[in-house]
Design a protein that fits this description.
The complex is a heterodimer of chains A (about 325) and B (about 270). Chain A is mainly α. Helix content of chain A is about 70%, strand content about 0%. The chains are: A mainly alpha (about 325), B mainly alpha (about 270).
Chain lengths: ~325, ~270
Amino acid sequence: MAAQGTQKKKLIDWSSQTTFMVVCMAPIIIFLLVVAVAPLTYAIVDSFRELSLTVFTKRGAFIGLENYGDLIGEDEKFYTSLWHTVMFMAVVVPIEFVCGLAIALWINRQFAGRRLVLTILMIPTMIAPVVVGMIWRFFLMPSFGVLTIYMNDLGLFRETSIFSGPATAFGALMLIDIWEWTPFIMLIMLAGLTAMPKNPIEAAQLDGASKWQILWHVQLPLLKPLIIIALMLRTIDASKVFDTIYILTGGGPGDATEVISSFAYRTNFVKWDLGYGAAVCLVLAFVSLVVAGLFYKVVTRQRAIATTRTAVREKEPAVAG
Amino acid sequence: MKLRRVNNPVQFFLPLLLLLVVALGPYVWIVMASFKRKGDVITAPPKWIFEPTVMNYVEIFGKGFDRFLINSSIIGFSSTAVCVLVGTMAAYGFSRFKIPAGDHLFFYILATRLGPPVAYALPMYLIFNELGLINTHIGVILAHATFNLVLVVWMMRSFFDDIPREVEEAAYLDGCSHFKVFFKIALPMTYPGLAAVSIFVLIFSWNEFLFALILTGGDTRTLTVMIPSLVLHTGTLWGQVAAASVLQSIPILVFIFFIQRQLVQGLTFGAVKG
């Protein structure tokens, strides 16, 4: 930086700010070039190759767009996993939202031990997804899982185990996701409810509005920015679900619980079909880039609404000269 | 702000109790399992009362649990250090200056977090494989630092945005350089936030599974990779799985109690203020 400072002696004030900007931004740019852009470029090149374990030692032959053609044109498993992912998101996110909101409305009071209760309720969200998977695997084990035993007593799953049927396996994964992530929605809604001004609610009460009317016409509209952020974050995270599926079903039985993440994992790191797998990953990365664009627009707007302080971002710090 | 008080304790606490049982029950069951003897872990009907033992904990240390614990710690702390250092500088830049093409960069940082991790893990695998960084700490440290960068940049940016501009302006008028203003004024004002961000990054790295699974192996495996490896075709020693899971999650339980105020902010990348 000293070197740069001397290079531009004419405008010292201006240049020192530029220098500082460079020092601020250079690490992240170099970092992203090394760990994100370079690997991505590498993967793009590999996605044009036939690169599997058999030819792993030498670089595979270039086959142009064949990997992409195969994937988008005719790979049914890819579309199946995509469909499962969409279905998963469509089921878990609304349920998590309704439950999370209900719990938040319930808890939003003053009581002894509130902090401890909140800590306990956040456990499912905060512990490692791997541990969540193991806990439920242990819970739902055939014959000896504690939940299996009690369900057997009720006459459920006596002949088959939960994870051997396609529908029950998928349903169980969804329930586990709901258990894991409802507290997350609850926490966001609770933050919104706690920060909510009291006056509109009191005014509505004076006007004789019922609890439901207040919820629908006062509280929900005020929560709207947070609801949108919460739903978007959950939808995105639900589309990435992997750890619990890896632990509990591995995508099975058959491909009944195969989602895009487990599909990509299997293609690359079980079948070692790396060229094809790179194409899969790049298609997914591209889709997520589009989603990210939407997300960015929505969040920046909702955040501006959510924070009472309007973010006035000055272009330059007011430095003399 | 004053919250509503509880009027009818029974009506309020009974459903709450049910909720706590649902949230905590599975975890309590695994804590219990970790203190059971081999014969008591898998029984039908399940055993609620048993003679506790610490055998499972002793046995997982015999299986190299301590090494994986150290791996997880090295990877967690190193990636947090890299990520917080790089991210905080950038966040200040984003907050204070008009960076050329800054919006694109800001957006790109976000995109690394929104896609399925596996889509980014493979490119990393390919290049780290070429560079000989597979099965080393460095590879997974870089990976974790990358995908936590968005959290640091977004949260720290919002903390810097909150600092009243007058404070820094006064310092500039006193002739302070940008570096001095950053290190002596802006940064210290964000220390509480910085601490919370660091804890979040640490937790996310500590809990991360996919990158660790792909990029580490053998002696460099993390706890999250080690735990599923205790599941064997010949029969899983659930007592040991339980013990490892409990030890892995204890630091997190402690942390969430202490950073509860920043929990919302961290989990939403700073989009929601607690």
